[in-house]
Write a structure and sequence with these properties.
This protein is 17% helix and 34% strand. The chain is an alpha/beta fold and 268 residues long. The protein has 2 domains: 97 residues, Elongation Factor Tu (Ef-tu), domain 3; 111 residues, Rossmann fold (3-Layer(aba) Sandwich), CATH 3.40.50. A 7-stranded antiparallel β-sheet has the order 4-3-7-1-2-6-5. The longest helix is centred in the last third of the chain and has 13 residues. It is globular and about 55 Å long. The protein starts with 5 loop residues before the first strand and ends in a 6-residue tail after the last strand. The structure holds flavin-adenine dinucleotide and FE2/S2 (inorganic) cluster (FES). The site of FE2/S2 (inorganic) cluster has 12 residues, from loops.
Length: 268
């Protein structure tokens, strides 16, 4: 774990509807997230409210920086159920109870230049932090390509953010309303002839499985960020177990050993 987690009451700075069903929320932090790594997540609940009882996990999408330093975080979320519906109704000035940063993060080999990032739907959330983190560390992103897939154009998020950073963006949608019609791996696989140094992926399990398969065929290192249901988010309830690829290894827990794993160490 990169740094000490902390729990704090965070004020909502903004809560914007950026596409049908998708919101970006800005939260203050007194403690700052200066040591947070891309891929790490926070869990949150509504301050001083009982329901929903369980905290919900969300990737850190961005760090909010002011002249004084890091003053908060942004989360990108999709409305799917009780908590995210309630979150979408929150207003500027409302308070959330935030615990983080949790889990591990993507590891970034210092010699990686040709970087492929595959994101499916809301799986793009940690990738904005990943690219801005690499840029701040002085990485040359001119050979980085982000492959974003979604059901339709409304599910394609952050493309302009990556483009502004000078990163090539390739799109696919199931219905062909943006980019090429099909799945992310339909465009990732032919691009493998460029021999990327590493692939980072986040998205639905079938997508992660397909990306891991491509990485294996081309013998390219691949790190995947896995989303499972989580109850405690801290390694206590064992509800987020994933099977190891090697039968002799113990089960791993997404909240503690992940959410980022090398794609060849867990069975997906
Ligand atoms: C490490 C991690 C990082 C995440 N990062 C983000 C993020 O950046 N943005 C974002 O929008 N979401 C993210 N998620 C998923 C997010 O936690 C869930 O969407 C959220 O908990 C749903 O809460 P809810 O009360 O709205 O839905 P619920 O009412 O609890 O559930 C609604 C439906 O969503 C399904 N569901 C709930 N949680 C998950 C899950 N984790 N995986 C698959 N299906 C689920 C349920 O089975 C149910 O069908 C992340 C999950 C993990 C584990
Ligand atoms: S969510 Fe409880 S152990 Fe991972």
């Amino acid at each position: 774990m990169a740094n000490i987690m902390f729990q704090e009451k965070s004020r909502i700075l903004r809560n914007e509807n950026i596409s049908p069903g998708y919101y970006k929320i800005g939260l203050t932090s007194d403690r700052g997230y200066s040591e947070a790594l891309p891929g790490q997540f926070v869990t949150l609940k509504f301050a001083d409210q009982i329901a929903p009882l369980l905290r919900r996990p969300f990737s850190i999408h961005r760090l909010i920086t002011t002249a004084e330093g890091i003053s908060g975080i942004e989360i990108l979320y999709r409305v799917v159920g009780t908590c995210t519906k309630k979150l979408s109704l929150c207003k500027k000035g409302d308070t959330l109870d935030v615990l983080g940063p949790l889990g591990n993060g993507f590891s970034i080999p210092s010699d990686a230049r040709r970087i492929f990032i595959a994101a499916g739907g809301i799986g793009v959330a940690p990738m904005a932090f990943l690219t801005s983190f690499m840029q701040k560390k002085g990485a040359d992103l001119s050979e980085c390509t982000v492959f974003i897939g979604g059901r339709s154009e409304d599910d394609i998020l952050c493309r302009d953010d990556f483009t502004r950073m000078g990163i090539a963006v390739r799109l696919t949608t199931d219905d062909g309303s943006a980019g090429e019609k099909g799945q992310v791996t339909d465009i990732l696989e032919p691009a493998m002839k460029l021999r990327p140094d590493i692939i980072y992926a986040c998205g639905p399990m079938p997508m992660l499985k397909a990306v891991a398969r491509v990485a294996k065929i081309y013998a390219v290192q691949c790190q995947i960020s896995v989303e499972t249901m989580m109850a405690c988010g801290m390694g206590v309830c064992l509800g987020c177990a994933v099977e190891p690829e090697n039968d002799s290894d113990a089960y791993m827990h997404v909240c503690k050993n992940g959410p980022v794993f090398d794609s060849d160490i867990i069975r997906i």
